[in-house]
Every structure is written in structure tokens, then in C-alpha cells.
């Protein structure tokens, strides 16, 4: 495509071929070609009616728990109906290749680290291990009052086609289930809302990996939401080359070592294949 120039692609391929400790930071654009809507791009009706910026907050959950709970269950169900794309598969293949090369397969010393802002499970379903879900997961739940983890998958309503507008309309207004431990609590999704701290373990693992990396790829994020957007800047401060893969320019673009203006499912297989 226009903007994906051969010289840059060659330069990045060389970095990829030599990387021993690459870190790949992913955002919503990573899953766009799997059919998962991003947060800030122009959206279809549903996402205009129920904007993530308005619903992804603790205030929204307190004001209308059923709406927020149902919206998350609807998204979980939509994502179950999506499949990993060629970009997810290329990253998993690169991780396997590096594992095989240095004998760390399956261990905590894995040589390719995936750090994702995404709450979906498409990296895992493509066969990659994820070092850190810094914004949590749609498939974990805990009590909003006492933090007790959910004992069972709370399930999703199954009316209508998964992810469709009819499906959302049918399942809206399901109350969140009661906490398994405390008397008054209800479950909430295990995601990080605006104004909440990132989970300490995943955040520390992400910072550590980025500072020790020899190459950082930033794929499909607007680099708008803090503190995740600061991770590539930490890498640059540590002298690590940073490559951005995104069809659009972002706030990070002026700072990166190389920019590949293309989509995740097109560019990543071309780099790694
Ligand atoms: C493609 C593509 C293709 C398309 N291939 N690419 C001022 C006021 C209030 C708060 C703040 C403030 N300034 C800073 C803050 C803090 C706030 C923040 O950053 N806000 C910004 C809006 C300014 N951050 C926080 O609150 C964080 N916590 C925190 O700071 O704690 C300390 C603190 C405590 C108490 C008080 C204050 C501070 C928490 C942030 C949590 C973010 N949570 C969400 C929701 C998760 C749950 C859910 O899914 O519902 O995480 S928001 C949403 O944004 C989600 C995402 O992970 C995150 C990032 O989005 P992402 O991935 O970048 O997606 P998009 O849509 O933005 O971009 C997609 C990109 O893909 C685009 O660039 C496309 O071009 C590209 N693309 N197709 C490749 N095929
Ligand atoms: Zn509880």
C-alpha cells in the first residue's frame, strides 16, 4: 500500500531477524481485522450509542450496573465469535521461532514478550503467550466490593446472533451476578477502567520487558491512553529501537525509529514470514 515503502520494510526486517529480546506492544488495531471494533475510530451505531469512553468507568458501573455488565458480556460474546488474524498468527510464529532458537520454550524467560492493552484473548488463541494484559481481560471477573475472583464463568445471554445489535438489545439489562464471598457485592469485569490503577504485576513486567528489549514493535494503538502510551518512550530512552505499525499517524509517530504505514494483518506476516 502507499506509505509502506520497501526500504523501510527491509530495514525493519533486518531488525526483526537480529532481535533476541523483542517486545510487541499491541492495541485495538491488532484485532481490527478479526472484526473487533477499535475504541476511537469512527464506529457503527452501537458504538456511537454506547461509547467506550462513557461506559468504561467505575461511575458508569455504579450508576447503571446492568447496562455496563451487559455491555461487557455482549463484547465477550462478540469476541468469542471472532478469530485471530494473520498478524496474531505471525507474532505467535515469531515467538515459537525464538523459543526454539534459545531453548526457553514455555518458560518465563521467553525471548519474545507480548504486552497488550487488549482485553480480548486473540493472541492466546493464535498460540502466543502474553506477558501482560495491562488493561485486564474480558474473561476474568471479580467482586466490585471485596475483589474476590469469580468462581465460574458468569456466562452470556444467547439470544440473537453473537455481536449483533439485536443480540445486544436482547441481552441488555442483565444484572451482574452476586459475589461468591461477601453479602452485598456483585461481580464486575476484570478490566481497567479510566481513573483506575493498572494491575501492578502486569505493569511491572511490561516496564521491565521494554527496558530490557532490543526491539519494540508498537502495533495498532493510538498511543493516547496513559500510562500504556509511555512504554515505547521508556524504550526509546533506554536506546531501544521502536517500530510503529499503524495505517494512521499517532502521537508516537514523530518519535519512532521506523514507521510502517499498514495494517497488522498485512505488515506483521511480511516482517516475520
Ligand atoms: C490499526 C488497524 C489495523 C486500526 N492494523 N492498526 C485527563 C483526565 C482524566 C484522566 C486522564 C487525563 N489524562 C490522563 C488521564 C489518565 C487516563 C488517560 O490516559 N486518559 C486519556 C483518555 C487521556 N488513564 C487512566 O485513567 C489509566 N489509569 C491511570 O492513569 O491510573 C492512574 C490514575 C489513578 C487515578 C486517577 C488518575 C490517574 C487507566 C486507563 C484504562 C484504559 N481502559 C480502556 C478500557 C478497557 C476496558 C474495555 O475494553 O472496555 O482500555 S480505554 C481503551 O483505550 C482500552 C484500550 O486498551 C485503550 C487504548 O486504546 P487503543 O488500543 O490505543 O485503541 P484506539 O481505538 O485508541 O486506537 C486504535 C489504533 O489502531 C488507531 O491508531 C488506528 O489507526 C489503529 N488501527 N486498524 C493496525 N488493521
Ligand atoms: Zn465480594
UniProtKB/TrEMBL annotation:
Listed cofactors: Zn(2+)
Active site (record annotation): 135 (proton acceptor)
Ligand binding (NAD(+)): 117-120, 220-222, 246-248, 264
GO CC, alphabetical: cytoplasm
Keyword set, alphabetical order: Cytoplasm, Hydrolase, Metal-binding, NAD, Transferase, Zinc
Gene3D superfamilies tied to this protein: SIR2/SIRT2 'Small Domain, TPP-binding domain
One Pfam family recorded for the sequence: SIR2
GO molecular function list: histone deacetylase activity, NAD-dependent; NAD+ binding; protein-malonyllysine demalonylase activity; protein-succinyllysine desuccinylase activity; zinc ion binding
UniProt remark on cofactor binding: Binds 1 zinc ion per subunit.
Residue ranges crossing the lipid bilayer per the database entry: none
Keyword Metal-binding attributed: yes
Compartments (UniProt record): Cytoplasm
Keyword Isomerase applies: no
Annotated positions binding Zn(2+): 143, 146, 179, 182
Enzyme class: transferase
Domain Deacetylase sirtuin-type positions: 2-273
EC number: 2.3.1.286
Physiological role: NAD-dependent lysine deacetylase and desuccinylase that specifically removes acetyl and succinyl groups on target proteins. Modulates the activities of several proteins which are inactive in their acylated form.
Protein name: NAD-dependent protein deacylase
Organism: Micrococcus cohnii
Lineage, highest ranks first: Bacteria, Bacillati, Actinomycetota, Actinomycetes, Micrococcales
Gene that produces this protein: cobB
Amino acid at each position: 500500500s502507499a506509505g509502506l515503502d520497501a526500504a523501510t520494510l527491509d530495514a525493519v526486517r533486518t531488525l526483526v531477524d537480529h532481535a533476541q529480546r523483542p517486545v510487541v506492544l499491541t492495541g485495538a488495531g491488532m484485532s481490527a481485522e478479526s472484526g473487533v471494533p477499535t475504541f476511537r475510530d469512527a464506529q457503527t451505531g452501537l458504538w456511537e450509542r454506547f461509547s467506550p469512553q462513557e461506559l468504561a468507568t467505575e461511575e458508569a458501573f455504579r450508576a447503571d450496573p446492568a447496562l455496563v455488565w451487559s455491555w461487557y458480556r455482549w463484547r465477550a460474546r462478540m469476541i468469542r465469535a471472532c478469530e485471530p488474524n494473520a498478524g496474531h498468527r505471525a507474532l505467535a510464529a515469531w515467538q515459537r521461532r525464538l523459543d526454539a532458537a534459545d531453548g526457553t520454550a514455555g518458560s518465563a524467560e521467553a525471548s519474545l514478550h507480548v504486552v497488550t492493552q487488549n482485553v480480548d484473548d486473540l493472541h492466546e488463541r493464535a498460540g502466543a503467550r502474553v506477558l501482560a494484559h495491562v488493561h485486564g481481560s474480558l474473561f476474568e471477573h471479580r467482586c466490585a466490593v471485596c475483589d474476590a475472583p469469580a468462581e465460574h464463568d458468569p456466562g452470556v445471554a444467547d439470544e440473537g446472533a453473537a455481536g449483533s445489535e439485536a443480540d445486544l438489545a436482547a441481552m441488555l439489562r442483565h444484572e451482574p451476578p452476586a459475589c461468591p464471598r461477601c453479602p452485598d457485592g456483585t461481580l464486575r469485569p476484570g478490566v481497567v477502567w479510566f481513573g483506575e490503577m493498572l494491575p501492578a504485576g502486569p505493569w511491572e513486567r511490561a516496564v521491565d520487558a521494554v527496558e530490557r528489549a532490543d526491539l519494540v514493535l508498537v502495533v495498532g494503538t493510538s498511543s493516547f491512553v496513559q500510562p500504556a502510551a509511555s512504554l515505547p518512550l521508556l524504550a526509546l530512552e533506554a536506546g531501544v529501537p521502536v517500530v510503529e505499525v499503524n495505517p494512521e499517524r499517532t502521537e508516537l509517530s514523530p518519535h519512532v525509529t521506523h514507521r510502517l504505514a499498514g495494517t497488522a494483518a498485512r505488515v506483521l506476516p511480511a516482517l516475520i514470514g
